[in-house]
Amino acid sequence: DHLIKDLYNAIIKAVDQTQRDLLVFLPGVREISRVAELLQRQSCSFDVLSLHGSMNLAEQKQVLSKTNKQRVILSTNVAESSITLDGVDTVIDSGLAKISRFDQRTGFGRLELSRISLASATQRAGRAARQFSGRCIRLWSRQDELSMAKMDIPEVQRADLAESLLFLARIGNTNFREFS
Question: For 131-143, b where at least 16 C-beta lie within 10 A, e where not — what string?
Fold first, then answer.
């Protein structure tokens, strides 16, 4: 819970240093909930919003809509590269993500807490400077960064594709190497 406390302190400090919105990258929904709970316990002058892949489209659109109040958006890596969050000038990056991996021993996929790659760190930092100059607060050391992979392993190389291949076969496409 050292991570949660560090994130909480970084958020409170960053809110005091900007009038704009903050985007906070957390590894998963559980961590988002815990940080949101801590922030909402105090009387906040800002909105605390969550953004993750298990939210429905209407909920995600609500988070994407700019309000008159300063926002702290707690997000998984879903916000890493696919969207621009209007009004964000500060990113706080935990440096962690939950990555789906196929376990050969058990035959099941599982979420694994992992350090992000340097490429992901660059993408996340870029969310702060989409509309105006911004800053990124990284919650890891230079030593940690030296051990980070340059790129993420593509999901197609770490996931179990059996279900997808069975679906393709069921609809009549059995030439898997030619399927685009």
Answer: eeebebbbbbeee
Is the CB of residue 51 less than 8 Å from the CB of residue 63? yes
**97 DSSP β-pair partners:** 114
For 47-90, what is each residue's pLDDT tens digit? 999 999 889 888 888 888 888 899 999 999 888 876 778 889 99
The CB density around residue 20, as the number of other CB atoms within 10 Å, is 15
In angstroms, rounded to a whole number, what is the distance separating the alpha carbons of residues 169 and 164?
A: 9
Residues shown for the chain? 180
Paired tokens of 29: 């929904």
156-159 long-range Cβ contacts below 8 angstroms, 24+ apart = 158/99, 158/100, 158/101, 158/102, 159/100, 159/101, 159/102, 159/109
Ramachandran area for residue 82 (φ above 0: left; ψ -120 to 50: alpha; else beta): alpha
Q: Is-contact 75 51, C-beta < 8 A?
A: yes
- Rounded to whole angstroms, the Cα distance separating 49 from 75 reads 8
